[in-house]
Amino acid sequence: MARVSLVCQAVVLALTVPLYGNLGLSFEWGTIAPHALLIALLVGIWTHHQLVPDRRQGAVVNDLMIAVALMLLLTNISSPAQYAAVRLGQPLIDHWLAAADGALGVHVPSLVSWTRAHPTIDVLLKVCYFSLLPQFLFAPIAAGLIFRDRDRLWEYFFHFHFCLLVTLASLAIFPAACAFTYYGFESTIDQSRFIHQFEALRDGSFGTLRFDDLEGLISMPSFHTAGAMMVTWMFRGRRWWLVPVAVLNVGLVASTVLTGAHYFIDVIATGVVFLTSLAAFRLFGRRWMPANQEAPTSSSFGVKR
Asked: What are the residue ranges spanned by the domains of the chain?
């Protein structure tokens, strides 16, 4: 599974690196240092366990180190790739998304007005919305250190890669400026940085990428919704964990629309993406799972034998 991840990341790099210079985008490389140090630390711990296996901890802890390192690496590759995707200048699809919402009887500005009239609900929705990043980190830690379930860890790893790469590709082909821009209302979540960077990328006035100032630019499908789904799925079958996680993530999915961050159709489309990820894992992902074994060995970085 880890080798497949590296191949996918290499493909993304091969496709995007030539674009940055051609599209007038450059990097302030000093801003990547904290991210690079964290990834290097995790890889260093993994390397140590490869050379000096610790049978008391088992292979799952070793897997956790390399899985989180590769997820962070993918994030640091795909986050700037969003900017190249938007800079490509493909036609915006907001009118199609708004029309789809209308066909479903949903009007996002009206929902946001309702949310703004209920401040307590607005605060709770924001808490749910901003819980995604901690959840992304907690889910693999729970699988590796609490449940010690290697299969669940690598399945989560698969869904993270699949959904992120699909949403990134969708941004490049079908970009959207989001509901708050299309309708002209103010989201209850501050979107000023998104609006500035998205519009500056589209008009060519944005040129320098900083890793400490990267914004999520994906609208359809919603990676927030995909994250809520994959984390909740990771806790299935563990009732005492699943119930609070599910409640939190129902709020997270609701927040994407009720705060005005997304169209409702974005959520529907994300459900299709995640169902596709589940099917892809059953068809292909299981073949790439590391072999189950009691102690970490070099094969934990490979595919199932």
From this structure: 2-289
